[in-house]
Amino acid sequence: MALFSKKEDKIRTSFEVLPTHLGIIMDGNGRWAKKRGLPRSAGHKAGANVFRTISDECANLGIKYVTFYAFSTENWKRPKEEVDALMQLFKEYLLEAKADMTKAKNSRIEFIGEREGISQELLDLMDEAEAETADHTGTTVYLAVNYGGRQEIVSAVNKLIDDGKKDITEQDISDNIYTYPECDLIIRPSGEQRLSNFLLWQAAYSEFWYSDVLWPDFGKNDLYKALTDFENRNRRFGA
Ligand code: FPP
Fold this sequence. Notes:
By secondary structure, the protein is an alpha/beta fold. 40% of the residues lie in helices and 14% in strands. It has a 6-stranded parallel beta sheet, sandwiched between helices. The radius of gyration is 18 Å and the shape is globular. The protein starts with 20 loop residues before the first strand and ends in an 8-residue tail after the last helix. Residues 1-5 have low confidence and may be disordered. The site of farnesyl diphosphate has 20 residues, from helix 1, helix 2 and helix 3.
């Protein structure tokens, strides 16, 4: 008997069809920490390391755009200690990137979300990372920080109003949101099956892939499983 009886069961590490734009909701850090009797910040720290591994792997695979949901507009409601720990992790990642740009490989780092509420120190580091990697031609890694999908659409509409635009079209909105490429696949670990205000506009025809694995335990094999599954999806875009 073949080791893998169904095409879907076979996990592969190279792909004929890749999502052009992959979205990842990094969920389950808190539960991961709780299971170990650790503070939630320890879960986020472990999650930040997985972010490094998975964003590098997306670059190795040649995925053109990958968006990681790192901090939502609603996450400010969390205890200050947890918010500070997350901001510190973003800062550490950016300082690392600044100290050694080769770490970013050929990837472009871009932030999506509202700037208001983020410290000037972090904003400066974000701007520097974007400027330093602007001419990189590999994967664009979008980090959604202080991001909300509804807020993204509202801000696009307001921009269009400010420009005096009337009769707004879908294309106008697509041109004025933070990231245009339609999202092909959204991965959400940790057993939750919700979009949670992530890439609302871009997700109109996204495929979804869920897993019970908590984000700090998410590994390259989980990414390969999701991509293998995606390759076998029959996408019809409403046709
Ligand atoms: C949701 O899981 C996760 C977050 C609100 C934060 C995600 C952020 C990271 C993984 C760190 C990213 C770091 C860098 C450098 C980009 P949760 O904590 O709500 O988990 P729970 O549902 O188990 O409580």
